[in-house]
Amino acid sequence: MKTIELSINQQVHRIEVDPEMPLLWAIRDIVGLKGTKFGCGQGLCGACTVQLDGQAIRSCQTPVGSITAKQKITTIEGASTRLEKIIQAAWIEHQVPQCGYCQSGQIMSATALLKSNPKPSESDIENYMSGNICRCGTYSRIKSAIQTAAKNASKNASKSTKS
């Protein structure tokens, strides 16, 4: 066991865990944030996606001991930036979720995509999001929501630069 300091959603958590514990279990079972989901445990489905310093990562495959105290972890509960709110609004507009199980991982991946590529092509979206599985098959709605979010974020950004 080791004391590890994690910055999750702008709050510091000091936890006593085995450094090899997957970040997913530290987030869910130790810190108590249940929005990040367990899907496959092998990094294949994307349900456990969180952001580490703005990059989408699979928390089920990331040992908690590999994260430094200076790195910033964002889970769906902390997804409150302007861009994340725009993405969530687009998700609602396009009625993306059916069962909803994959949605936190989908939104965290979509946010990382739009942070790195604010104007993705259809193929950029398909390639980036291909690692996130939706058992309900709402892929066309996910793609449409990301396209809408990209347009709305771009409009919002141009309004704020004119002000």
UniProtKB/TrEMBL annotation:
Gene3D superfamilies assigned to the protein according to its UniProt record, in alphabetical order: 3.10.20.30, [2Fe-2S]-binding domain (1.10.150.120)
InterPro entries, sorted: 2Fe-2S-bd, 2Fe-2S-bd_dom_sf, 2Fe-2S_ferredoxin-like_sf, 2Fe-2S_ferredoxin-type, 2Fe2S_fd_BS, Beta-grasp_dom_sf, Diverse_Oxidoreductases
GO molecular function annotation: 2 iron, 2 sulfur cluster binding; metal ion binding; oxidoreductase activity
Keywords, alphabetical: 2Fe-2S, Iron, Iron-sulfur, Metal-binding, Oxidoreductase
Keyword Iron-sulfur: yes
Keyword Transit peptide set for record: no
Matches recorded under SUPFAM superfamilies: 2Fe-2S ferredoxin-like, CO dehydrogenase ISP C-domain like
Domain 2Fe-2S ferredoxin-type: 2-79
Protein name in the entry: (2Fe-2S)-binding protein
